[in-house]
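seq as requested:
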Amino acid sequence: MENEIIRIQPANSMPIITQEKVTRKKDIFHLFKDIPQKLYFEDTKRNIALFKGDCFDILPRIPENSIDMIFSDPPYFLSNGGITCHAGKMVSVNKGKWDESKGIEENYIFTQRWLRECQRVLTLNGTIWVSGTAHIIYTVGSAMQSLGYKILNDIAWFKINPPPNLSCRYFTHSTETIIWAAKNKNSRHFFNYPLMKKMNNDKQMLSLWSIKAPGPLEKIYGKHPTQKPLELLKRIVLASTRTGDIVLDPFSGSSTTGIAAYKEGRQYIGIELEEEYLKTSIKRLKDEFDTVKYGKEKSKN
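struct tokens:
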């Protein structure tokens, strides 16, 4: 299979699009020989693996320079007893103990620690995407800078039709920031510029993405409180990986990243602490397998 890639030329000259043959890499399972934890779910045919555990226990045992792309939706530390609006009702913002803040310093140490491990396992030209609200994204950016990541873009994800702000004391929260960064300043990251332009009516794609929040069909097997829309993850996967690349999510939740990776022909490693979300992940993944196998069509939301 061939992928279009872009070669950067000197200023004032048009980029040259060339063709690159993609050879399938070794499957992901050879990366796990030093990990004592048993896989919670594995599919050797489709190269998908899910671990139940803490990313701090699993990431350090994955070989360095082995992962092509990481998407991370870490705890936002916003479970503070506040309220929000969901389906027209007032509900608590609390998502679980994993989302409770431990204070500014501890939150920073936690963030820098998992980012350091992600940086270690990324390939030399690998990239990472990290999503977050104002509660955590500035901590993420600061930690990235301290570790020597090369920040490429900050994407503003505009959530179409967001829930209202019940207190009427703030602007309605309608965006999340997604930082895209390369391993370090020497990385020659992959960006599928031609495809992104093609997806945007033959115009350069902006860093403002208007994408709806996940609809009911993405939550029929259960829902995660910070679940991301499949459309968002598909765009990220297509923009920054090639067919056969290895994608990892250290806080995989209900595995939207994994579904996007599978649908686009990438390999996937997910790490998740909560068994509830792993069970939801497996149901969602198997549903996608059946969709491909039997050609079932899902109606749009």
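The mean pLDDT is 86.
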